[in-house]
Amino acid sequence: MIVYGSSMSPYVRKVLAFAAEKGLDFELKSLGLQADDPDFRAASPFGLMPAFRDGDFRLSDSTAIVTYMEAIKPDPALIPAEPRARAMTIWWDEIADTKFVPCMAKMFFNRIVCPLFLKQEGDLAEADRAEREDLPKLLDFLEPRVPESGYLVEDRLTLADIAIVQPFANFGHVGAGVDAARHPRVAAYVAEIQARPSIAPWIERERAFFAKVGYEPNR
Ligand SMILES: N[C@@H](CCC(=O)N[C@@H](CS)C(=O)NCC(=O)O)C(=O)O
């Protein structure tokens, strides 16, 4: 199995973490945004990462890819079978992809992607506004929904947790950490899930990259 993309993308890191939690054997083919690699393009017609290949089967979109992984290797179950738990898991995945990631992207794109990869000035005002106005609203939403168990669905690890914590790694990269005094449950929850061996090494690798290129969050 091949996953195409960069772990810096929360969508890609979600797939990498999911595959690792499943114990699937995969290789990451590292690519930048809109890469023209023909294998990547064959799997991702719109040029979005992650893309995926298993033999002659090609696919893109993180949720589609993890759905395939769940079907070919049901154990351990990361997308529950029980109807309500299953629906809630997909809901959390969607919240991650359509609420948390777009908020994070305003900061990550303008503070990191623009200066570091595109060699152009980012819209720092937009990044600051997202951090000041959008992020606290999302954290206020999440704070009362983090259960005592430390898992969002079925009191055990599911795709819901794997998806929701990914943008938080990028929040960290851009210097927008969670204030544990204001959002203590979120802070503890994110730290716990991110520490899993399926996730932590990717974040470490990204931090090492930023340290190597001398990146300091530009705010
Ligand atoms: N819904 C897709 C979103 C994928 C996506 O937007 N990936 C971004 C990177 S985080 C990308 O490849 N962007 C390149 C572009 O927009 O041209 C998924 O879940 O995989």
From TrEMBL:
One of its GO terms (cellular component) is cytoplasm. InterPro entries: Glutathione-S-Trfase_C-like, Glutathione-S-Trfase_C_sf, Glutathione_S-Trfase, Glutathione_S-Trfase_N, GST_C, Thioredoxin-like_sf. One of its GO terms (molecular function) is glutathione binding. Keywords: Transferase. Gene3D superfamilies: 1.20.1050.10, Glutaredoxin. The keyword Transit peptide does not apply. Residues 82-219 form the GST C-terminal domain. Residues 1-77 form the GST N-terminal domain. Pfam families: GST_C_3, GST_N_3. Its EC number is 2.5.1.18. This is glutathione transferase. It comes from Edaphosphingomonas haloaromaticamans.
